[in-house]
């Protein structure tokens, strides 16, 4: 499970703090230095760590903490609150139009991040909410992508709109929207093509799709196990294509947790969901407060 090593390190820091009656400024400084190291080792972005520690320090050296009845406990609370803030405080949901209209969601991300799987996972969640989603296979470059979406769509009981790999993604998106409108679907999820690395062509294609159909939300899928890379990808997509939120996949295999902690602060975009496994039911809503509790153990 995610964060094991960060949790273990933070727990050691806090154990030391709790064992002291009153805290001196030096005690707090030492503890925060250890927290800083633990966050850096968890692959949290350096800039984010610096700001985080500064903010905790400002609150922790305040008189209230020094003179508090249980200063160790108060420092832990400050760290907890700052972690929640770092991850965005509020839970962000996919914003849906009225059921009488079609909400268009565009999925983006690098190849292998889990985009196609996540598309089907989200369709399942929306279906459970009473929506009627249609998935559009706009990844015409990866040979197996269309078939994979069809297989997953079938598992979820959700229709997949495909036109093979000879049409342009923009045209598929347009045709899918017509199909959605004429057949009573109220959510259209576009599975777009990824690349191994960020390139201009991919960014352009996403912009072209956005220009061709009225996309309501662009969700970026990133792989938590790639740590800082995931954060960089989020920042780039945010600047170049414009994204509304992030789905962080493979958190089940991520022992460090750096991406979960840095993405919001670096890209300015909230994490909506986290992928916790390969099964189509392994997608969880992202709750910053619960995640902070999980990290602190
Ligand atoms: P795409 O190229 O971005 O469309 O990626 P895929 O959807 O094909 O996923 C790539 C691999 O990651 C597949 O083997 C998925 O089963 C796996 N995967 C996707 N999401 C998760 C997740 O949350 N946890 C785990 N453990 N594996 C995942």
UniProtKB/TrEMBL annotation:
Subcellular location field: Cytoplasm
Species assigned in the record: Fusicatenibacter saccharivorans
Domain comment quoted from the record: Composed of three domains: the N-terminal N domain, which is responsible for interactions with the ribosome, the central G domain, which binds GTP, and the C-terminal M domain, which binds the RNA and the signal sequence of the RNC.
Recorded catalytic activity of this chain's protein: GTP + H2O = GDP + phosphate + H(+)
Main location: cytoplasm
First and last residues shown, out of full length: 1 to 297 of 449
Entry superkingdom: Bacteria
Family, similarity comment: Belongs to the GTP-binding SRP family. SRP54 subfamily.
Class of the enzyme per the UniProt entry, highest EC level: hydrolase
Function field: Involved in targeting and insertion of nascent membrane proteins into the cytoplasmic membrane. Binds to the hydrophobic signal sequence of the ribosome-nascent chain (RNC) as it emerges from the ribosomes. The SRP-RNC complex is then targeted to the cytoplasmic membrane where it interacts with the SRP receptor FtsY.
Lineage of origin: Bacteria, Bacillati, Bacillota, Clostridia, Lachnospirales
SRP54-type proteins GTP-binding domain location: 270-283
Binding site for GTP: 109-116, 191-195, 249-252
Enzyme Commission number(s) of this protein: 3.6.5.4
Protein name as annotated: Signal recognition particle protein
Complexes and interactors: Part of the signal recognition particle protein translocation system, which is composed of SRP and FtsY.
Keyword annotations from UniProtKB, A to Z: Cytoplasm, GTP-binding, Hydrolase, Nucleotide-binding, Ribonucleoprotein, RNA-binding, Signal recognition particle
